[in-house]
Design goal:
Number of strands: 41
CATH topology of the largest domain: Phenylalanyl-tRNA Synthetase, Chain B, domain 3
Distance between the termini: 85 Å
CATH superfamily of the largest domain: Phenylalanyl-trna Synthetase, Chain B, domain 3
Number of helices: 22
Radius of gyration: 40 Å
C-alpha cells in the first residue's frame, strides 16, 4: 500500500517536515513493514513552469512531418525573468519546437526550461533542430512521468486550470508530494486504505485521528432504489456470499470531463494510473475508505440485480474483453440478461461505463473473503478490489463509501444525486470477546495496567466495558481478524509496544541432549559428508511414475502413495516413497549447469500408506477427542521411516596433470551403503539382487536380519536414458531407521594393535552362478578369529578357466592381538577357510 503524505495529513497529525522515511519508522512500531519510498521529485527537477503559447508557425519538413515553431511566454507580461541559465531568455519568451498539434495560440501549457531533468535522466538543454534553436520543451503527461498520454501535450485549460504564467508545475501538480509504501499482512486488510493507515499512524505516535467516514453525511432515501436480490440460500463456504449490497444512482454526469490534477496526482503516487474521471473516482474512494466500488452504466442494466452462484456452462465477458467460463462456485452479479460481473473480482463488459454514459449505478457491497479468493485464483484475475475483499472489508462502510462516490460525481462530473437508495442484506455483528483480568499480563509477561489495556483496545476502534471478570470487548467492524482473547492480547502488545516485552533467554534443561535417534542421524549425515559427499535437500513431492519406478523392486507391483489435496504442481501430486527421484532431479539440474562429477546424498522421510489412509471423522475445535477418535486418526497416518540415499555420477576426483580419475561404479554405491551401516555399528548382508530401477546384473540387495533394508548398484540404462543422465550413474538407498533401531546402544571402536600383519591371497574356481559375497562369507567363517579383513579383488573367466566357471581372488589379512603370527599359522587359517568354501560351493583352489 502506497500512502501519499498529503492525503495522510488530512486525517492524521503528520508534521509538515515529516518525510516518507519518518512515516514508515513510526508505522513499524505498530507492526507494518516498510517497503519503499516514492518521490516524483527524485526523477523530476529543475525549472518546469506554466507557459502560454503566443504564436505557432507550422513548417513542412522534407520527411513529410509538420512541426510547430512556437513562441511561449513563461513569465507574466511585464515581469522580468528571474531564472538565469543557458538558453533561458531574459524577456521571458522562449522559442520552442513542438511536434504535437493538440493546442492553439493562447493555450496555457507545461514548459520544461533548460536545466530541467525529466524521468530517465533526460536533461533539457538548448539544441538546434529543424533550423531553429529550441530552448525548452512543451511537455506531455508521459514525458513528466505523471500519466500515459503521449499523443499530445498537456493543455491546462482542459484540466480546469488557469494558473498564472511562471507557476511552478511541480507545486501545481502536487509533484513535491511523496509516498511511503508499506507491506500489509493478510490479517491487516483495513490498512489497504488511507483510513486504516491514518488510524495506525495515530496509534503509533499517540496523536489524534479523524475518521474520514465520520465526515460524510448520508442522504436519506425518499424512493426505492434499484431492486436487488441476494440468492445464496445454500452458502458454499459456510456463510452467505454477500452480506450487504448497497446501490446509489447519479444522473446527468459528463464522463468526458478531466480528472482534477490533485486527484490524478494522488492516484499516481498511490500506484494507480488515471483512466477516466468516473473510474478515477471509484479508485479514489476505494483507496480512501478501503471499500471497493463498481460503477454500472445504468441504462445498460435490464431488470433487477441478483447476486447468485453461477450455473454450469455459464459464461461472462469481463472488462478485459476475455470470455470466461464460470464455475458453479463463482459468486455473480446478474440482471435479466445474465451475468454482468464476477462479484468482488471484475465487472462485465456489457454494463461498462463509457464516454457516452450519463447515468451511473454505484455498487458498494460486502462479499465473503474465501469465495472471492477462490474465484480470483480460478480465473487468474488479481485486482485491487479482490485484494481487499480477500482480507475482509468493513461491512459498515458500504453506504458511506457509496455516498462519498455520489458526492464526488456530483462535484466533479456535474451529476445530480438521486435519493433512490438500496441497502440489501444484513451485515454481521462484530464479535464480542471476553478478556479475563490479568490474562494479557500472564500471556505476554508484561505488567499492563487496566488503563493501558483500555486505551489500546479503544484505540483500534473497539468498545470496552469493564466486568467483574475483566473486560468485555466489541471488536470494530473493520477487524474481522479479532475473534479470541489472544487476538486482543496481541493488539495490546502491539499498541503499547513490542519493545516493552522483555527478552528472556530460556535455560536448557541439563542432562538431556540429543535423543539416541537424533544422535544416530547426525552421525550418518556427518559421516557421509566426511567421506566427501555433498548433502542436498529435495522436495518430497513426486509424480506417480517416479513412485512407481522407485517405490517397489518389482515393476508389476502397484505402489500405494499419499495424494496431495493441494499440490504445488499437478505433475508432482504425490508424496515420495523413495528419496532417489528427488536426488536424481537435483543431479540433472547440476549436470545442466556444468557440474559433471557429483556425489550427492540426502536423509529424509518417505511416506508409506497403510491400509487405512486418513479418517472419515474430523473432531471439532475446542473439544478433546476421545481415545477412539485419536486412535482412528493415528491409524490413518502413513508410516514415515527415515531413509538415507546417495547418487554418484562422473568421476571420484577431477582430472589432473598425469592423473586420470576413476569413474564411480556400483562398488562405490555399495561401499557408501556399508559405510552408513558401519557408522551405526551394524553389518549388512549383501547379496545379488534385482530392482526395476537398477541394472539387472549390477544390483546388490541389502539385508539386516534377513529383512531387505535397501538396494545399491548401477541404475538401469533405460531409466538413465529417459532422465538424460550419464550412463553408469550409481545409487544406493537404505531404510536408515531400521538400521538405527537394530544398532547397539554404544558403538565400540575396534582396538588397535601393534602386532604385525600377515597377508595371504587365494584364488578359487567356482561355478558362474555362485555369488562372490557368499564365498567371501564362507572364507571369513572358516578363517577363524585370526582373520582381520577379507576383500574380493579380482573376478576372472576366460582362457585357462573351464567354461561355466569363474575365478574369484581374495586378499586375506591375518593378525593376532598378542603375538606375531608365523607364516604357518596364517597358511593354516587360509587352508581352513578354503576348506569351508570347497565344502559349500565346490570351490577349487587355482
Amino acid at each position: 500500500m502506497r500512502v501519499p503524505l498529503s492525503w495522510l495529513r488530512e486525517y492524521a497529525q503528520v508534521p509538515a517536515e515529516a518525510t516518507a522515511e519518518d512515516i514508515m519508522a513510526d508505522l513499524v512500531k505498530v507492526g507494518l513493514e516498510e517497503e519503499d519510498v516514492h518521490r516524483p521529485s527524485d526523477e523530476l527537477s529543475g525549472p518546469i513552469v506554466v507557459g502560454q503559447v503566443l504564436s505557432i508557425e507550422k513548417e513542412e519538413q522534407k520527411n513529410g512531418k509538420t512541426i510547430n515553431w512556437c513562441q511561449v511566454r513563461v513569465v507574466p507580461e511585464g515581469t522580468e525573468q528571474t531564472l538565469s541559465a543557458e538558453g533561458i531568455d531574459p524577456s521571458g519568451v522562449q522559442g520552442i519546437i513542438c511536434g504535437a498539434h493538440n493546442f492553439v495560440e493562447g493555450d496555457k501549457v507545461v514548459v520544461t526550461l533548460p536545466g530541467a531533468v525529466l524521468p530517465g535522466d533526460f536533461r533539457i538543454t538548448p539544441r538546434k533542430t529543424y533550423g531553429h534553436i529550441s530552448a525548452g520543451m512543451i511537455a506531455s503527461a508521459r514525458e513528466l512521468g505523471i500519466g500515459e498520454d503521449h499523443d499530445g501535450i498537456i493543455v491546462l485549460s482542459r484540466l480546469g486550470l488557469d494558473p498564472e504564467l511562471g507557476t511552478d508545475v511541480m507545486e501545481l501538480f502536487g509533484l513535491y508530494d511523496q509516498a511511503a509504501e508499506i507491506n500489509v499482512t493478510p490479517d491487516r486488510g483495513y490498512c489497504f486504505s488511507i483510513r486504516g493507515v491514518a488510524r495506525e499512524y495515530a496509534l503509533a505516535t499517540g496523536t489524534s485521528f479523524t475518521d474520514p467516514a465520520s465526515l460524510i453525511t448520508l442522504d436519506q432515501d425518499t424512493a426505492a432504489g434499484h431492486p436487488v436480490r441476494v440468492e445464496d440460500a445454500a452458502p458454499i463456504y459456510g456463510v452467505t456470499g454477500c452480506s450487504r449490497f448497497v446501490t446509489r444512482e447519479v444522473t446527468g454526469i459528463d464522463p468526458t470531463l478531466p480528472t482534477p490534477r490533485w486527484m490524478a496526482s494522488r492516484l499516481a503516487l498511490a500506484g494507480m494510473r488515471s483512466i477516466s474521471l468516473v473510474v478515477d473516482i471509484s479508485n479514489y474512494v476505494m483507496l480512501e475508505l478501503g471499500q471497493p466500488l463498481h460503477f454500472y452504466d445504468a441504462d445498460k442494466l435490464s431488470g433487477p440485480i441478483v447476486v447468485r452462484r453461477a450455473t454450469s456452462g455459464e459464461k461472462l465477458t469481463t472488462l478485459d474483453d476475455k470470455t470466461r467460463e464460470l464455475h458453479v462456485e463463482d459468486l455473480l452479479i446478474t440482471d435479466d440478461s445474465g451475468a454482468i460481473g464476477i462479484a468482488g473480482v471484475m465487472g462485465g463488459a456489457a454494463t461498462e461505463v463509457s464516454m457516452d454514459t450519463t447515468r451511473v449505478l454505484i455498487e458498494s457491497a460486502n462479499f465473503e473473503p474465501v469465495s472471492i479468493a477462490r474465484s480470483r485464483r480460478r480465473h487468474k484475475l488479481p485486482s485491487e478490489a479482490s485484494k481487499r475483499y480477500e482480507r475482509g472489508v468493513d461491512p459498515m462502510v458500504a453506504d458511506i463509501a457509496a455516498q462519498r462516490a455520489v458526492n464526488l460525481l456530483v462535484e466533479l462530473a456535474g451529476g445530480s444525486a438521486t435519493t433512490n437508495i438500496t441497502d440489501a442484506g444484513t451485515p454481521a455483528t462484530p464479535a464480542t470477546i471476553n478478556l479475563p483480568a490479568g490474562y494479557a499480563n500472564a500471556l505476554v509477561g508484561v505488567d499492563y495496567s487496566d488503563e493501558q489495556i483500555i486505551t489500546a483496545l479503544e484505540g483500534i476502534g473497539g468498545t470496552v466495558t469493564r466486568t467483574t471478570e475483566g473486560f468485555e470487548v466489541s471488536a470494530p467492524s473493520w477487524r474481522p481478524d479479532l475473534g479470541a482473547k489472544e487476538d486482543l492480547v496481541e493488539e495490546v502488545a502491539r499498541i503499547v509496544g513490542y519493545d516493552k516485552i522483555p527478552s528472556t533467554l530460556p535455560v536448557a534443561p541439563p542432562g538431556r541432549g540429543l535423543t539416541r535417534i537424533q544422535a544416530q542421524r547426525r552421525r550418518i549425515l556427518q559421516g557421509l559428508a566426511d567421506a566427501g559427499l555433498t548433502e542436498v535437500l529435495a522436495y518430497p513431492f513426486v509424480s506417480a511414475a517416479q513412485n512407481q519406478s522407485f517405490g517397489s523392486a518389482q515393476a508389476e507391483t502397484e505402489v500405494a502413495s499419499v495424494k496431495l489435496a493441494n499440490p504445488i504442481s499437478s505433475e508432482y501430486g504425490l508424496l515420495r516413497t523413495s528419496l532417489l527421484p528427488g536426488l536424481l532431479d537435483i543431479v540433472r539440474r547440476n549436470l545442466g549447469r556444468g557440474f559433471r562429477d557429483l556425489a550427492l546424498y540426502e536423509g529424509g522421510l518417505v511416506f508409506l500408506p497403510k491400509e487405512q489412509l486418513g479418517s472419515s471423522y474430523l473432531p471439532p475445535l475446542g473439544i478433546k477427542p476421545s481415545d477412539e477418535v485419536l486412535a482412528d486418526l493415528n491409524a490413518g497416518i502413513p508410516e514415515q521411516p527415515w531413509h538415507i540415499a546417495a547418487v554418484l555420477t562422473g568421476h571420484e576426483a577431477r582430472a589432473g596433470v598425469e592423473y586420470a580419475p576413476r569413474a564411480w561404479d556400483w562398488a562405490d554405491a555399495l561401499s557408501t551403503a556399508q559405510s552408513v551401516a558401519g557408522i551405526l555399528g551394524v553389518e549388512l548382508e549383501v547379496a545379488q539382487g534385482s530392482h526395476q530401477a537398477f541394472h539387472p546384473g549390477r544390483t546388490a540387495v541389502l539385508k539386516l536380519n534377513d529383512e531387505v533394508v535397501g538396494y545399491a548398484g548401477e541404475l538401469h540404462p533405460a531409466l538413465l536414458k529417459d532422465l538424460d543422465l550419464p550412463a553408469r550413474t550409481v545409487a544406493m538407498e537404505l531404510n536408515a531407521e531400521a538400521l538405527m533401531l537394530a544398532a547397539p546402544e554404544v558403538v565400540v571402536a575396534q582396538q588397535l594393535t601393534t602386532q604385525p600383519l600377515a597377508t595371504q591371497d587365494v584364488a578359487l574356481v567356482v561355478d558362474q552362478a555362485v555369488v562372490a559375497g557368499e564365498v567371501l562369507a564362507a572364507l571369513r567363517e572358516g578363517a577363524g578369529d585370526l582373520l582381520e579383513d577379507i576383500a574380493l579383488f579380482d573376478v576372472y573367466s576366460g582362457k585357462g578357466i573351464e567354461d561355466g566357471k569363474k575365478s574369484l581372488a581374495f586378499g586375506l589379512r591375518f593378525r593376532a592381538t598378542d603375538r606375531t603370527l608365523t607364516a604357518d599359522e596364517a597358511s593354516e587359517a587360509r587352508a581352513a577357510a578354503v576348506a569351508v568354501a570347497a565344502e559349500r560351493f565346490g570351490a577349487v583352489q587355482r
